Amino acid sequence: MSAPNIEFVVADAVIAGIAARAAAAVPGVSRLEPGVRGLVARLARTGMRLWTGRDAAPSDGVRVMRDDDTLNIHVDLVISAGCRAGEVGVTVQREVSRVVAEQTGVGVDAVTVVILDIEPEQSR
Amino acid sequence: MTELVSESSTSPASAAALDDATLAARAREGDVRAYEQLVLRYQGPMFRLASRMLADRAEAEDVAQEVFLTAWRRIGQLQDDAAVAGWLYRMTTNRCLNVIRSRRIPAEVDLDSTESPRTDTRPEHAVQVSGQMAALTAALAQLTPEQRACWLLREVHGQSYEEIAEIVGANATAVRGRIARARAQLSEVMQPWR
Amino acid sequence: MAVNSTTDRDYLLPCGRDLEQVWRRLDAVEAGLADEHEASCAHCAAARESLRALRTATRELIEDPEAPPPDLFGRIMVAVRAEVRRGRTLDLPTPHPGSVQISEESVAVVLRYAADTVPGVRARGCRVRVAESGPDGERVIAVEMSVAVRMGGSGVAELIPVVRDRVRTAAAARVGLRLGRLDLTVADIYDAGEEAR
User: Fold this and answer.
1) Which CATH code is given to the segment(s) A12-119?
2) Which chain B residues touch C1 with a CB distance below 8 Å?
3) Which of A9-18, B171-180, C121-130 has the least mean pLDDT?
4) What letter would DSSP give residue C191?
5) Structural domain containing residue C18
6) What is the complex's ipTM, to 2 decimals?
């Protein structure tokens, strides 16, 4: 953690949103995938029934976890078929840490990336 | 060794063209995209069966939704991947029969009236439906649910007697009997229309 | 049309003919192939009229689009995706703190896709397991795959090495995993005609 005088607190939801956007911007990332927990959280927030088919909010698929002084971010991903999965995962880890630190001053201790699915390339 | 060149070097047969057995095998292992293809292929037939079994589009939607979610959960129990369609028909038919059993028995339908107790909820289509089809729809409601299921599966969904026997859990002779009975009853109310 | 039902299953017209028989004979009689009884019997004629009306109405029913509501598909898939079986994951190498994991099912998707690129081959099942860490610390996977081959296509002996090669290449290039062992089973044959929409 680098900021010496913390005069403000950044809400986890904000960190999650920034992390989500950073991950989604990485080439090869098709979308963030809501896991069960993400989906349930979204529904609880909005009071919606399960059967609505609305698009997932951008932060779905991202979980921010704090443990004592450590900040871990978990990202679930769907990647595109034409890329190299391992490299995309590593880039996402790097970008999430970098962008969160840049935009909030908050240091990320670890990023866990889980690739849950691979989508075929869009046909040209 | 002869050179093996694919028709197109980067894209295999598109998922939409894959046979049922392949899609079912992959869906069993968790391939969501393969399951999507099965849903796209069979949501229409299952919805239509439920809609005509129940004479209620809203309930038919619920049945179709539950069938496809249950099928996803239970696809590990499917013995013969190639028979996934029959398996879906069986789940849809059973669910419809359960819905019907749990309804209160409606008052007897007066075939001369233009409305039945549970009207098809598509008012914009009502005027376009011919008298013939309205008569058939009303007559279908008069069959027992088991007769209606067998008749729809045979005459609308093109299933064989053996397939229907598997779907409804009866033997082929009983199925034949139900369909014959259904046909006799339905044709009694069909007047020759010009 | 009068129907005297004598048993639960036989619907006999007053002339003794079975209604199902009249139904089966509808097209033949229309084509002019009526037998003596069919040509002269009023009961059969009346039955044929009613059955023809039923047949016409049935065709209308079949052709009535009665499409499911457009959002049904979306609702089904939202629910299905919420239950996607996460299954096991494999670790991929990374220099950063935390981890990069990939689900076994995702790897299976890549490998099935690779097998599908071989003409006349369709991947069916694919199970991926981590075997051990290789000499360079890389992850080595063991794969069991079953495929269907097209009837009348190239022989299995020709196809298998190509499948192995493409699967091995895809594992390395697309995922970053080394293929240790590939057990291939030819589980089925398919007809090219079954690829119909």
Assistant:
1) 3.30.70.1350
2) 187-188
3) A9-18
4) -
5) 4-63
6) 0.77
